[in-house]
Design goal:
Blueprint: H1 13-20, H2 27-35, H3 44-54, H4 59-64, H5 67-71, H6 80-100, H7 109-120, E1 127-133, E2 139-147, H8 157-166, E3 171-177, H9 187-201, E4 206-213, E5 218-220
Parallel strand pairs: 3-4
Antiparallel strand pairs: 1-2, 1-3, 4-5
Helix pairs in contact: 2-3, 6-7
Length: 227
Amino acid sequence: MPGIKDWAEDDRPREKLIAKGADALSNSELLAILINNGTIDSSAVDLAKELLAKCNNDLKHLSLLSYKEMVQLKVKGLGEAKAISIAAALELGLRRNVAENQVDTIKKSKDIALFMQAQLAYKSHEVFVVIYLNTACKILHHCIISEGGIKGIHVDTKIILKKALAYNATQLILCHNHPSGAVKPSQQDKELTQKIQQAAMLLDIQVIDHIIVSSETYFSFADKGMM
């Protein structure tokens, strides 16, 4: 079958991007540029469409996949090298989102929720993060405390407080994601929040919020009067 080079110039993804800009291309056309070339039977655009179809035409689903998982989808013509290129491009997109939502000082729960959503929303497993702040609510440091499986994680309060002392933090914001998409806190979430709160109080450190994020929304303990 004819390759992309045999198509009308306006229909070729690269030429279309040059002429009209990246926003004029469909998701499959953008992926086709990363895939670069197809097979004897299928164009790069065909491969891109098949890959998207196996992800229910959902870029969020695709972004959750590692390059190995992409290869395991068995799209003929999509090998490790092409999957790595796609995974790298998707990761750059996620990092751009993180950079756009970067904050230095916390004024409201939405500030930190958007920042954490950008980092955690597309994780397929739970990740627990703590943000360390000074009395002016300026972020001193933030880091992952624990990562776990689909069902949950183990959080060590001692590690959280040790880092708080190391960074001279006077306030903490707890944050974790719910891969299921439901952000309502579980009983375990509530108990963990209280446990960390009580331990932090002994060191004169205040836990000012616990935020749960998903790809679509977030839940703030402070906003709901639960802190």
